[in-house]
């Protein structure tokens, strides 16, 4: 009987070991995005050292509250709002190279400090109930800072009020992830060459704006064309995105 008990215990031990290995091997890594930045890159920097590199954002502070928790580089908790998922960006998942640096950067700027958010009017929350927003720190766009610092990659998932390609740096990585809720993400990513130059074409008659490569632009008369340097400029002037190229 004792021998049988030992055999059962041994089998249970082996099963648990195999389950542990499989769990580690299949750990969630998101898009797999990683980067080479380290915590030590930001430890000696003051808030002013970081913030002074960036211009004030034209995003609007809809809600303001104390940041009480930083879950990772793209998710924080704001008092009076709850969990906030930084829209348009994606940082490395826990355990992936670069995750600690991205999280540290956000903690340095936000934790136990008052921040503001500009909520995505096109899609207020994600499937987990987190508020989708741009986080504003001392007038600066945190989402943009993460991209330009190389601490995050672009994750554009329309519909969205915000177009993260407008925040990108020269070497910003673009997520290979494609939203299951839309078929336009991949086509939008393919048109980054035109958006990177900051050019959009509007139609004076329809008040729609397009990528320069959109087939609708080819059908447009020259007298009806108007050029915008950014997506926000087009929207602020009353133009809406084309339903075909989804700029």
From TrEMBL:
Keyword Ligase: no
GO BP terms, alphabetized: DNA repair; regulation of DNA-templated transcription
Region of interest: Disordered: 174-193
Superkingdom, taxonomy of origin: Archaea
Organism annotation: Methanobrevibacter millerae
Feature: compositional bias, Low complexity: 175-193
Record protein name field: Nuclease domain-containing protein
Residue ranges annotated for the TNase-like domain, each copy included: 61-152
GO molecular function: DNA binding; methyltransferase activity; zinc ion binding
UniProt xrefs under Pfam families: Ada_Zn_binding, SNase
Keyword set, alphabetical order: Activator
InterPro entries recorded: Ada-like_dom_sf (IPR035451), Ada_DNA_repair_Zn-bd (IPR004026), SNase_OB-fold_sf (IPR035437), Staphylococal_nuclease_OB-fold (IPR016071)
